[in-house]
Amino acid sequence: MILVKRRIEFRDTDAAGIVHFSAFFPMMEAAEHEALRQVGLSVMQPTAGGGHRTWPRVSAHCDYQHAARFEQVLEIAVSVTRLGQTSVTYGFDFRCEKFQIASGTITAVCCDWSPGGSLSKIPIPDDVRAALQRI
């Protein structure tokens, strides 16, 4: 598990100053990116031939338990909840002070993108799999 902190910005909130439900999805993605950086990976890893490995999302889900407000600091715990042959599912646990705010998941598939624009699903390479197991 990797812990990421994020202050709630004004753009994340509705007219009442409460985090809008849709704001949790970019927060999950940003927390995923930070977790990947912490284990030496990126969502766009260069590959031979000028392409890159990328991780298109195939599923995203979020459940909400408690309101969070402008300028509060969220702690987002990121973990890998499932590591398949070609996909990874991340779990996200949002907390603020003593409250469970929300929980969610994102599933992404390992793909190679070539400079010609083709996208091909591939098995997760062993070195990437080892890094993901540290999340």
Summarize the structure.
The chain has helices spanning about 25-40, 125-130; strands at about 1-5, 45, 50-55, 55-65, 75-85, 85-95, 100-110, 110-115, 120.
- How large a portion of the residues is in β-strands, by DSSP E? 35-45%
Q: What pattern of helices and strands is seen along the backbone? A: EHEEEEEEEEH
Shape: elongated
CA-CA gap between termini = 5 Å
Mean pLDDT value: 96
The biggest sheet amounts to: 5 strands, antiparallel
Number of helices: 2
* Secondary-structure-derived class: alpha+beta
Segments where pLDDT lies below 50 for 5+ residues? Answer: none
- Estimate percent helicity: 10-25%
Task: Tell me the Rg in angstroms.
Answer: 16 Å
Strand order of the largest sheet: 1-5-6-7-4
Tally of strands: 9
Question: How would you portray this structure in words?
Answer:
This protein has 2 helices and 9 strands. With 135 residues, it is of the alpha+beta class. The strands form 2 sheets. It has a 5-stranded antiparallel β-sheet with strand order 1-5-6-7-4, with helices on one face. Strands 2-3-8-9 form a 4-stranded antiparallel β-sheet, with no helix packed on it. It starts with a strand and ends with a helix. The protein is elongated, with a radius of gyration of 16 Å. The chain is 16% helix and 43% strand. The longest helix has 15 residues.
